[in-house]
Design brief:
Layout (H helix, E strand, L loop, with lengths): L6 E7 L13 E7 L5 H15 L3 E5 L5 H10 L1 E2 L1
Parallel strand pairs: 2-3
Antiparallel strand pairs: 1-2, 1-4
Length: 80
């Protein structure tokens, strides 16, 4: 996945961390943004990974986290 899209996956998050994905069986992943990442390529990564895993996937970028939310999300991440 990382070879196809400019992201580096760093952790598994508790369900609900990726607020834009509503499915109960979704997989929420924490990732670092790499040069060249756009909203289109991020969405493409979510779609491609969802197809490979046969379940919804939400990606949360470390660069988009701030303050208390950042601390809570990073503390809850399980390393991959």
């Amino acid at each position: 996945m990382e070879a196809e899209f400019p992201v580096h996956f760093v952790g598994l998050l508790p369900r609900g961390a990726a607020l834009h994905v509503e499915a109960d069986d979704a997989l929420d992943l924490l990732a670092e943004k790499r040069p060249g990442l756009s909203l289109t390529s991020l969405t493409g990564a979510e779609i491609a990974l969802s197809r490979r895993l046969s379940r919804p996937v939400g990606i949360v970028l470390t660069s988009e986290l701030e303050g208390r939310e950042r601390a809570e999300i990073l503390a809850s991440a399980r390393p991959l």
